[in-house]
Amino acid sequence: CEWLNSIGVTAALLKYRVPVRAGQTKHEAPLQDAQRAMGLLRLRAKELALNPQRLGTIGFSAGGHLVAALSSAPERIYPPVDVADSVSCRPDFNIVIHPGYLVLKEQGDRIAPDVQVTTNHPPTFLAMTQDDPVRIENAVLYYMALKQAKVPSELHAYPTGGHGYGLRKTEHYVTSWPDRATDWMRSRGLLSPLSR
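Request: output the structure for the sequence above.
Response:
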């Protein structure tokens, strides 16, 4: 959140439910939480001085999967609670860093069913390393699916850095990804001030 604030982005942190809940699929509770949070932010955008058409998501590792799943499930997967569940929960852009669970290795690296890409997907920035034990195929093949759907996307594949580097600066070039993401957001007009 501090990094986003430093580049002029208002940030909200979602603490989603883990682990799996009885009677639910592996990623169901986190997706419900993300859908609800996006609906609440969009509903309260004016009160929070946010542009409801510039609400994006950022996710790391399993959170990267959650960002992708949120973009693939624009309809709520839970019964409506209140008016916040009647507004769109689809993000307007995504930043996905060292994601997991996007492809099914045992099925020839096919895109996972819960992150299927459509032409309605939001623009997406991806970053991952070739030596990530989670496998770079997650980011590369997801990027290819976005490209085939003609979704504006950008992929940065770095040679080293492993997994879980987040925002920590190290000797690995991958830790420059926040600069690349900032450039990407700026090029898309996402960092320009809101018109009043």
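The helical segments are 2-6, 28-43, 62-72, 137-148, 177-187.
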